[in-house]
Amino acid sequence: MENVLAVLNLGDLAQAFSKMGMFPVFDLAYYIVSILYLKYEPGSVEVSRRSPVASWLCAMLYCFGSYILADIMLGSSPVDYFQYNSHILLASAVWYLIFYCPLNLFYKCVAFLPVKLVLVALKEVVRTRKIAAGVHHAHHAYHHGYFIMVIVGYVKGSGVALISNFEQLLRGVWRPETNEVLNMSFPTKASLYGAILFTLQEAHWLPVSKSTLILVFTLFMATTKVVMTARHSHGSPFSLIESWTCHLLFGSPLGGGEEDNHHPPAGAAPSSPVKTKEELSEGARKRKAKKAE
Amino acid sequence: MENVLAVLNLGDLAQAFSKMGMFPVFDLAYYIVSILYLKYEPGSVEVSRRSPVASWLCAMLYCFGSYILADIMLGSSPVDYFQYNSHILLASAVWYLIFYCPLNLFYKCVAFLPVKLVLVALKEVVRTRKIAAGVHHAHHAYHHGYFIMVIVGYVKGSGVALISNFEQLLRGVWRPETNEVLNMSFPTKASLYGAILFTLQEAHWLPVSKSTLILVFTLFMATTKVVMTARHSHGSPFSLIESWTCHLLFGSPLGGGEEDNHHPPAGAAPSSPVKTKEELSEGARKRKAKKAE
Amino acid sequence: MENVLAVLNLGDLAQAFSKMGMFPVFDLAYYIVSILYLKYEPGSVEVSRRSPVASWLCAMLYCFGSYILADIMLGSSPVDYFQYNSHILLASAVWYLIFYCPLNLFYKCVAFLPVKLVLVALKEVVRTRKIAAGVHHAHHAYHHGYFIMVIVGYVKGSGVALISNFEQLLRGVWRPETNEVLNMSFPTKASLYGAILFTLQEAHWLPVSKSTLILVFTLFMATTKVVMTARHSHGSPFSLIESWTCHLLFGSPLGGGEEDNHHPPAGAAPSSPVKTKEELSEGARKRKAKKAE
């Protein structure tokens, strides 16, 4: 009896959670963390001094890249989301405060670890909702387009990471030897797996309600990202299972695909590929960002 | 009494000016000046010999880049404007005459300074109309999408400059260290300010009629560009006010953002960033274009 | 009398040929040959081991690049074709077999010259149909948009070749000094000429039925490509007439535009531009692909 009640309560909770509005609290956290990552990028502070327009455009790509990409994928106007003036103004205010606040006060507040951990957790709530909404939107446009659902959910979750080469180009940086598909970071991988799960759910191949899936996936993403941020770690929880699957299916050398995420041998460091932005250790980034001030 | 009449007359004049058709005279001037700038680009003459298709495509991007970009921004077909066969044929004829005319006769005529100054003035008439049309078009699609109006007006005014990295790539040139957003030339900046003004007008926040704004902005653009072309100058009339605004708002060093436009110190020249195409001194370009013949 | 009958029969044959379904046999051949060319690309086997997702995306670009580009050109969703799950699954199966089949068995079978020649011929059947369909589709959207018809037919015929720079970027390779428009390979050129022919036919300026044109163009493409593949040749049958036309119309040096396709002087080889993928000698590619195993 109590068991059933617990299930009912969990269902209600999941239902309520999946209906909760994201604007403005969660979206604000999303904008802050995203633009924080932009500030960590080497050279971005200098760009913000030299060309505020380029810096603002990059910030908008960081905040709304997922909407832009999803709109492109579904053949809509890429600037469609820019009709929501309040969202753009909020993100612009965050951009201004993070880059130009006197004494760098705002940056210091939000980059303070306990504050940042809360913001990171809130950001993952938004990411999960975006994946679910992307899959649902694609399902609406293509009823049996399972590949399209996965693609749209994937770009909604990954956002600017997937076009980081072109976002960097806007800041005058060009690193063609790597990209987010070739070297997926944890959030990009998780977005892909999440998009597959939500597509399976939308196709009724997964015996679970969407609200429950949202709740479970959010909890998984938030805890994982918080732990990774707290530990300055960039190992992925998927690496062991991925390493074996890739070995069996694609003949990848065992642990080869992921080796640079775990204890890279000291000598290999100089030749290792350029780390993607979300893979850089937090400490290194902060030092760089501080020096650039 | 006479004052009122003068105002009425000015209003009528502005009205008539804003209704004036652009095809074929003004558009022709636009195509000639645009493809002239393409010929000034180092390597473009060689490309026209080796691959006429690539050269023609670049010429089309120079002439119709603003339509292509605006169509992309609003989610239409990027080649939508190519349905106007007469415009494409006219631009193609200009391309052929500028690149392949025997004895380089056509090029010499239109690059002759007095002729060129007239053409440059006519081109600015078209640019202003494009910005106004872009803002109006975006307003039609998104009634309160003020950011979208500015963006569409901006790309309509700037045209190929905003995608110059990819236009260069088509000719086998790749200069990732700079782009038109990072180092805005005068026409790109003016297009941005113009797009903001026309958006304010469209939103009724500017107490002026659209035809008057078109007339005033056209006069400003045409005189400025004619003076700049005549003087082989590339200083911007905005630089003083921009320098102070950027200093106050974005903490840019005073005169720093613009310093390479004014008397760069002799020693700094070799390390200065690559100049954007419309910033190169006219003399240097002509010499290059002549050598390439 | 018999003459008329022969003509009638040819007309019927052409009619039947132009109605023939492409799925699955012809499409399968298209996928196999396309992904074979991907495997010939230096580094692609290594990418398939390191990042199966990037490798799969490249394979999809090779198979469906023409649909993606045509959809972009006409303002539709670029992933519109991904709604056909059976096509995507078939292409994915081919990708898996070519890259990961034990003992490389599938690759060895389809790369065996007699088999490959048949597949290459079948691929050209699909290419011609795609050009015709592209022109027809564009004609439907823009009744008098002759330039749009040529552009859409061209991208439908050329497919991934036109975006090879960006396809390479996905694999971490960046070669900005060349592209498929600057150095057109035989299939790209033939697609352009085919698109022009089909546009003339659609505009009723060519006194021939569409089914006859499809039959004749298919025969021309299939025989030419089969002969070229059998001979490991990459000279184009158009080169003589092109060389003269370009000389007369565009002042290109005689034989200059094409010289690197015919007997390049031994000393010039190291400085010659990077060959495009379909221009590399088959032998060289196979050696590279084998070494990469």
From TrEMBL, chains A, B, C:
Catalytic reactions on record: K(+)(in) = K(+)(out)
Keywords: Ion channel, Ion transport, Membrane, Nucleus, Potassium, Potassium channel, Potassium transport, Sarcoplasmic reticulum, Transmembrane, Transmembrane helix, Transport
Location(s), subcellular: Nucleus membrane; Sarcoplasmic reticulum membrane
Ranges of Basic and acidic residues composition bias in the record: 275-284
Region listing for Disordered, in residue ranges: 255-293
Bias type Low complexity, positions: 264-273
Top-level taxon of origin: Eukaryota
Membrane topology: Multi-pass membrane protein
Task of the protein: Intracellular monovalent cation channel required for maintenance of rapid intracellular calcium release. Acts as a potassium counter-ion channel that functions in synchronization with calcium release from intracellular stores. Opened by a change of voltage within the sarcoplasmic reticulum lumen.
Subunit-structure text: Homotrimer; conformation seems to be controled by binding to diacylglycerol (DAG).
PANTHER family per UniProt: TRIMERIC INTRACELLULAR CATION CHANNEL (PTHR12454), TRIMERIC INTRACELLULAR CATION CHANNEL TYPE A (PTHR12454:SF3)
Protein name, as recorded: Trimeric intracellular cation channel type A
Organism: Ilyodon furcidens (goldbreast splitfin)
Gene that this sequence comes from: TMEM38A
